[in-house]
Design a protein that fits this description.
Distance between the termini: 73 Å
Oligomer: single chain
Number of strands: 0
C-alpha cells in the first residue's frame, strides 16, 4: 500500500474521537449555562432583597404623611417583612396618632412571643435589633406624662428582660439605656408626682396597686400592743405527702409522726442566664442533678449550657438525661449538639 492509498483509507478511530469531542462541547455548554443561571439567580435574589429594603425605607420615610388608616395598614405590612420591618414598627411608637402608637406596641409584643419559636441565633439577633431601636426611639419623647412614654417603658422592660435572656452583659450600653428609661418616673396628667403623694401622708403608690392593702404604711401604728404569732413552716412549692419537713409543728400534742428525715434540696431550672448566675452563687452547681434540672429551662441559652456541661461529664446519668431530653428539645442547634454527643 502506497502513501496515496494510505491517505484515502478512513481512520477507524475517527468516530470515537468525534464522539468524545462532541461530549466535551456539550459539557462545556452545560457548564456555561449553569454558571449563567447561578449568577442570574444571585442577581435576582440580591435585587429582591434590595428592592424590599428600599420599599421599607420609603414606607418609614413617608410614614408621617399618611393617614391613620394607611399607617395601620403599613404596620401590618412591616410585620410581615421579617427582621427588616422591626425598625419601622419600633419607630411608629413615637407616632402622634394614639391608635398607631398603641398598635405598634401590640405588634411588638406579638412579635416578641413569635420569636420564641426561632433558633437561638435568630432570636438573639431580633432581640438586639428591637432593643437598639427602642433605645433610640426613647430619646425622641421628652414628656413623661405622654401616654407614648408609658408604652416605651413597658416595652423597655420586655426588651431588657429579653436581652439578659439572650446573654447580654449588664454593662452593655443598650441595656443600661433601657434601664434608664424604666427608672424614669411617669405620672398621669392631672396627678401630682409620687414624692408629693408621700409627703402629704397619703398611701404610698404601692398601696394603690391593691386597695385591700391600703394603709399598711401608715405611721405611727394604730395599736401599740404587739401581736405574737406562732412560727410555722411555710413552703412555696407543693410537697409530697410522704415528705417530712423538719421543725413543722404537730397538729396537737397527742399526734404521732414518724421520725423526721433530711431531704435533698430540689433544683429548679433557671428562667434566664441572669437567674442562673444567681443560682451559681448559692446552689451546688457541681452536681449532675443541677444540670439535669436546667434542661427544663424555657431559655435556650440555659439549656444549651446544660447540654454542654452534661456532655462534658459523660457519665451514665448525664447521657441518659440527654437521650431523654433529645425527644422533647425544640431548638435545632441544641438537638444537633445532643445528637453529636450521643453518636460518639
Amino acid at each position: 500500500m502506497d502513501d496515496y492509498e494510505l491517505e484515502r483509507t478512513p481512520n477507524p478511530f475517527s468516530a470515537f474521537a468525534e464522539s468524545r469531542n462532541q461530549s466535551r462541547r456539550h459539557f462545556a455548554s452545560t457548564a456555561k449555562y449553569l454558571t449563567f443561571a447561578f449568577v442570574l439567580f444571585g442577581i435576582v435574589t440580591a435585587a429582591q432583597v434590595y428592592l424590599q429594603r428600599a420599599r421599607l425605607a420609603e414606607i418609614v420615610s413617608g410614614f408621617s404623611q399618611l393617614t391613620t388608616a394607611e399607617k395601620l395598614a403599613q404596620l401590618e405590612r412591616l410585620k410581615t417583612s421579617g427582621i427588616d420591618g422591626i425598625p419601622g414598627i419600633v419607630a411608629a411608637i413615637a407616632d402622634e396618632k394614639p391608635e398607631v402608637s398603641a398598635r405598634s406596641a401590640e405588634l411588638l409584643e406579638d412579635l416578641s412571643r413569635q420569636w420564641m419559636t426561632l433558633p437561638s441565633e435568630q432570636l438573639a439577633e431580633r432581640r438586639f435589633i428591637f432593643a437598639d431601636q427602642l433605645a433610640a426611639v426613647s430619646g425622641t419623647i421628652s414628656d413623661a406624662q405622654d401616654p407614648r412614654w408609658i408604652r416605651v417603658q413597658e416595652l423597655a422592660r420586655l426588651a431588657a428582660r429579653d436581652l439578659l435572656d439572650s446573654g447580654c452583659a449588664e454593662n452593655d450600653a443598650t441595656y443600661r439605656r433601657l434601664m434608664q428609661v424604666i427608672a424614669t418616673e411617669s405620672t398621669a396628667p392631672g396627678h401630682p408626682p409620687r414624692d408629693a403623694i408621700a409627703e402629704t401622708g397619703q398611701p404610698l403608690p404601692i398601696d394603690l396597686v391593691d386597695h385591700e392593702a391600703a394603709g399598711w404604711t401608715d405611721w405611727p401604728p394604730t395599736s401599740t400592743t404587739p401581736t405574737l404569732y406562732r412560727r410555722t413552716v411555710a413552703t412555696l412549692d407543693p410537697i409530697e405527702p410522704s415528705d417530712v419537713v423538719l421543725n413543722q409543728p404537730a397538729d396537737n400534742e397527742g399526734s404521732v409522726r414518724s421520725d423526721a428525715r433530711l431531704l435533698k434540696p430540689r433544683f429548679r431550672p433557671a428562667t434566664t442566664l441572669a437567674d442562673q448566675t444567681k443560682q451559681r452563687k448559692t446552689g451546688d452547681v457541681d452536681s449532675t442533678s443541677y444540670w439535669i434540672a436546667q434542661l427544663q429551662s424555657p431559655s435556650p441559652f440555659v439549656r444549651k449550657g446544660a447540654v454542654t456541661e452534661l456532655a462534658k461529664r459523660g457519665d451514665r446519668s448525664s447521657l441518659a438525661a440527654l437521650r431523654q431530653h433529645f425527644q422533647h428539645e425544640s431548638d435545632e442547634t441544641i438537638r444537633q449538639q445532643i445528637h453529636s454527643r450521643l453518636e460518639r
